[in-house]
Amino acid sequence: LGYVGSMNEEDLQRVDAAEYRGTTHIGKTGVEQAYESMLHGKPGFQHVETNAQGRILRVLERSDPVPGSNIHLTIDASLQAVAERALGEENGAVVAVDPATGALLAFASMPVYDPNLFVD
Q1: What's the rounded Cα separation, in Å, for the pair 108 and 96?
Q2: Do 112 and 84 meet the contact criterion of CB atoms below 8 Å apart?
Q3: What is the four-CA torsion angle of 107, 15, 39, 94, rounded to 10 degrees?
């Protein structure tokens, strides 16, 4: 469905950098990338005044984190499994769409990419 990975300079060019301050990960592919603006929340922060020993004397400003939105996909898990089994190791793609609504019910493709490519 998609992958999340560490932000890089290219990612910062496609988003409002101010909205991503304090963020370390971003949707890199698939659904995660396509719906990044909905899935991304807002990080919280706290500005504090400390003494020489690092003890917090007072909180100057605080903002609680705000979670991103949930999304609901139309993919049917059972049909997705059937599509993956039908494709097996053959190169190609299987797509199932509800003709009445246009909803994507299943999508499988081969070859797949290695998810380890997105690990730091």
Answers
A1: 9
A2: no
A3: 0
Amino acid at 61: E
Question: What's the whole-model pTM score?
Answer: 0.67
Q: Sign of the CA dihedral 94, 100, 102, 104?
A: negative
Write out the two tokens for 107.
Answer: 């999508």
Task: Using alpha carbons, list the distances in angstroms from residue 59 to 39, 43, 55, 76.
Answer: 29, 17, 11, 48
Q: Tens of pLDDT along the chain (120 residues)?
A: 788 888 888 888 888 887 887 777 899 988 999 999 899 998 889 999 999 999 999 999 999 999 999 999 999 999 999 999 999 889 999 999 999 999 999 999 988 766 666 555
CB 41 within 8 A of CB 16: no
The length of the chain in residues reads 120
